[in-house]
Hints:
alpha+beta, Chitinase A, domain 3, 3 domains, four-stranded antiparallel β-sheet
Amino acid sequence: xxxxxxxxxxxxxxxxxxxxxxxxxxxxxxxxxxxxxxxxxxxxxxxxxxxxxxxxxxxxxxxxxxxxxxxxxxxxxxxxxxxxxxxxxxxxxxxxxxxxxxxxxxxxxxxxxxxxxxxxxxxxxxxxxxxxxxxxxxxxxxxxxxxxxxxxxxxxxxxxxxxxxxxxxxxxxxxxxxxxxxxxxxxxxxxxxxxxxxxxxxxxxxxxxxxxxxxxxxxxxxxxxxxxxxxxxxxxxxxxxxxxxxxxxxxxxxxxxxxxxxxxxxxxxxxxxxxxxxxxxxxxxxxxxxxxxxxxxxxxxxxxxxxxxxxxxxxxxxxxxxxxxxxxxxxxxxxxxxxxxxxxxxxxxxxxxxxxxxxxxxxxxxxxxxxxxxxxxxxxxxxxxxxxxxxxxxxxxxxxxxxxxxxxxxxxxxxxxxxxxxxx
Length: 424
């Protein structure tokens, strides 16, 4: 049996388990766990329940029985009340056992927020103008020059701006430390890639020269054991190179691209930049529309949902840090924050993420938006052509997660098209 009530945006369900059902749950717990007890005079798993209870206490099977019966009754309640949507695991606020009623357990949980979508016709979000400047085009040309730079070895002393290839071994208190050794490492002198004055001390060295370079690690260095420590790097300079950049002119363009002149190439660059900027402006506009809808919907997000979202955000951030050879604690030490402060900083973004998801789910639900097989195939085929594959061959290589990705893309496109059409 159960009794349900809604109070202050929380769900409260009272579960009542009869004496007979409680006894069945305890007996089931005994059958499942009796093999864990060693009782003198009995083979393992053969001791009667009363004997185990005499040795370990009358309530030895109660915890397991309680978890099983409460979980079973709570799931039954949810299955029979699909309109009740908890956003967290329930908390036990009270439980008692009486001889006449059996077990009574009161559970409480935050409910999915209820809200009404605003009219899309009154949305005020505006799309920004698309602007691409000559300076942006020139910057792309400079990237082209840098990407095709040549490195010419020089027989000279190293200078700022040169590229030095070095071997080095780092020592702290005369002991080599992890991550402080490399061979054939190329570094641009003056780039401040290394700590302290490391690069400055290479200036003036000759090919083949060895030198002890003394530095001090920053106090906020990510490796705890190196923070603020003086270190000595034994460095060997193996090569000095100067960077030579090509001259971008008509000849260079005609020799290296499908275009004949620099002006044609710059025009192509600008067209690509315009397309990229248009895509960015459109994405920003869509985000602004969803933000405005969420704000107008006045959604009150339970703190439990925010905590859950922050937890996933921190896990994701920690995973990305691991690919850079860094731990979350290293990062927190570097930025001078505690884990609680780091989480607190993310609560606003977490709440925003939740509101956006709730808005999207409600729009999809109220407008019965789905992805048909034809729409899904069209989306997949557009992607498959990038890899010169047929639709069927590409679909054979897809996983269930890939299908979910394309289905979500189709649905999201339809949602955003609906919003933009109605708010014109």
